[in-house]
Design goal:
Blueprint: E1 2-6, E2 23-24, E3 27-28, H1 30-39, E4 45-49, H2 53-61, E5 68-72, H3 79-84, H4 87-90, E6 96-101, H5 109-122, E7 126-132, E8 141-144, E9 150-154, H6 161-164, E10 168-177, H7 178-185, H8 201-208, E11 213-216, H9 230-242
Parallel strand pairs: 1-4, 1-6, 4-5, 7-11
Antiparallel strand pairs: 2-3, 6-10, 7-10, 8-9
Bound molecules: uridine-diphosphate-N-acetylglucosamine and magnesium ion (MG).
Magnesium ion binds next to loops.
Length: 246
């Protein structure tokens, strides 16, 4: 099962279109994210919609697939809240729930596959895909202890100057054991710089409860590009064309 986060307005895009419907390579970006999940062999897809939900749903309906279900997040209270909205779909499942972001059309099916393989081997509560980025401005940083073990994710806005020096980043590629995800969702708070329920906090909560959490730096360079403003939209479009997506 995969949860695709697509409810945000995308305030920083300065566009009336919901962010996930802005086009890259002449196609609304959300399609590339659904394509990648499909190519990775994931069955059931839950898309969290909110801002202009009908438009996003209508666009995805053009795929003619019946295996997409929608969860409506009427108020966008954060990425953690977006997954909380999916609880009824997750309840009772024992296996893997992947969570990925609709604003990352360069997510690679191969990366998702290798994460799934690793997850099947080690069966952690959470496996995160990460990468190292020279300019990590704005992104969630991966915190590790001196032994290199994962400690947690800190959002750029909440990070100290020292934490901001970290170049290993979260790209919103999460593989959760579903019961552990449900436990973490019940324990999220919104006590942070943005007053939002952060999905990233699940990582720290799970680790602090003694559950195994792993962060694996397997993502490719191109996957460091997500879309939050018009400049990033242009850069991703150019990158995808150069990679032969067009
Ligand atoms: C998020 C991560 C950050 C990571 C970055 C890039 C959190 C708290 N932060 O930040 O660590 O480095 O992505 O992967 O998760 N969305 C909803 N409902 C909401 C809020 C967001 O569905 O209430 C959706 C958006 O539509 C978007 C995705 O979630 O597709 C990510 O949201 P966005 O606001 O772009 O998060 P970032 O600030 O980029
Ligand atoms: Mg984003």
């Amino acid at each position: 099962m995969v949860v695709i986060l697509a409810a945000g307005k995308g305030t920083r895009m300065n566009s009336d279109l919901p962010k996930v419907l802005c086009s890259v390579v002449d196609r609304p970006m959300i399609h590339f994210v659904v394509d990648a999940a499909e190519k990775a062999g994931i069955g059931k897809k839950i898309v969290v919609v909110g801002y202009e939900a009908e438009k996003v749903q209508a666009e995805l309906d053009t795929r003619g697939q019946s295996d997409i279900v929608y969860a409506l997040q009427s108020e966008q209270l954060g990425t953690g809240h977006a997954v909380q909205i999916c609880r009824e779909h997750l309840q009772g499942h024992q296996g893997l729930t992947m969570v990925i972001a609709g604003d990352s059309p360069l997510v690679q099916a191969e990366s998702l596959k290798s994460l799934i393989d690793h997850f099947d081997k080690t069966r952690p509560a959470l496996l995160l895909g990460t990468l190292t980025k020279d300019d990590p401005e704005g992104l969630g940083r991966i915190l590790r202890n001196e032994e290199g073990q994962f400690i947690g994710i800190v959002e750029h806005k909440d990070a100290t100057e020292a934490e901001r020096q970290t170049k290993e980043v979260n790209m919103s590629t999460y593989l959760f054991s579903t019961p552990d995800l449900l436990w973490a969702l019940d324990n999220l708070s919104n006590d942070n710089a943005q007053g939002e329920y952060y999905l990233t906090d699940c990582a720290r909560l799970l680790r602090e409860s003694g559950r195994p959490v792993e962060a694996l730096p397997v993502l490719k360079d191109c996957e460091s590009l997500s879309i939050n403003n018009p400049d990033e939209l242009k850069l991703v479009d150019q990158t995808m064309r150069a990679m032969g997506y067009a």
